[in-house]
Amino acid sequence: MVAYCCLIQFQQQPAQFTNPETPGYVGFANLPNQVHRKSVKKGFEFTLMVVGESGLGKSTLINSLFLTDLYPERIIPGAAEKIERTVQIEASTVEIEERGVKLRLTVVDTPGYGDAINCRDCFKTIISYIDEQFERYLHDESGLNRRHIIDNRVHCCFYFISPFGHGLKPLDVEFMKAIHNKVNIVPVIAKADTLSLKERERLKKRILDEIEEHGIKIYHLPDAESDEDEDFKEQTRLLKASIPFCVVGSNQLIEAKGKKVRGRLYPWGVVEVENPEHNDFLKLRTMLM
Ligand code: GDP
């Protein structure tokens, strides 16, 4: 559903251009024709929420996904400040337009989540925010000016899980249970470059077992229809099998094998964000589409 950017107008920032020919570019052009025609008229509205402890790479991933700096002036608080911090909600909206099709993308970040020493109630602010958006939409929908409603309901939540633990933390379980009936949760394992292949496999399995054990409802991709082509069926099967997605984000372009790629440079080599052999970033993006 979410598309990639050809022209981005981000609040005060100047418009940036991204070439549709660049590798990894995902655009409205890739949508089926019918959807495309409908959306030309109306445009899309999509609200993505990102939740997870600070430092797990949320803003880096969002920047990698939408090729724009959503938080150019972000100030990261020190530990002393974080002790008593409450969760804030920061919504940034980008208007993306590609060949006349509009997408209004809102990314809702939740700084402060998991930062306080006692964070039992730290997700209450997030839940109130989700509820308020539903209520506002319902209110607008029952009003007179229904044609021009702005839909700020949270459509999807990327929930960032730490790669350093042994699975879900109590806070992860509590939070996901609190929102699973309101929002589509897509669990992602952050900073997957810190895990070996074996560790990834083990952590994915553990998280899936815990999700089942606690009765947490995560987003399930619908099965491919029986009349879809084999490639599409295979892609859907692969996406389903990869959840929770192991992702890597980066704000840097690095020279690798003679071309510039988005990646992270280590003494032993480059982790490429858009290389499916290195991590599930592309799968996550495909699913979002
Ligand atoms: P946020 O607080 O969750 O938004 O995290 P940031 O995006 O600010 O990232 C925190 C730190 O982690 C920064 O130093 C990033 O460069 C680094 N980082 C972000 N993504 C990754 C990743 O995929 N792998 C690794 N190893 N580090 C990352």
Automatic annotation (TrEMBL):
Which gene codes for it? SEPTIN2
Question: According to UniProt, where does the site described as Important for dimerization lie?
Answer: F164
Choose any GO biological process term that the UniProt entry carries and state it. Answer: regulation of L-glutamate import across plasma membrane
Gene Ontology terms, MF aspect: enzyme regulator activity; GTP binding
Q: Which residues form the signal peptide?
A: none
PANTHER family linked: SEPTIN
Alphabetical list of InterPro entries matching this protein: G_SEPTIN_dom, P-loop_NTPase, Septin, Septin2
| Source domain of life | Eukaryota
Q: What is this protein called?
A: Septin 2
Keywords attached to this entry: Cell cycle, Cell division, Cell membrane, Cell projection, Cytoplasm, Cytoskeleton, GTP-binding, Membrane, Mitosis, Nucleotide-binding
The answer to whether the entry has keyword Nucleotide-binding is: yes
| Domain Septin-type G intervals | 42-289
Q: Which GO terms describe its cellular component?
A: actin cytoskeleton; axoneme; cell surface; ciliary membrane; cleavage furrow; intercellular bridge; midbody; nucleoplasm
Please report a single Pfam family linked to this protein.
Septin
Q: What subcellular compartments does it reside in? A: Cell projection, Cilium membrane; Cleavage furrow; Cytoplasm, Cytoskeleton, Spindle; Midbody
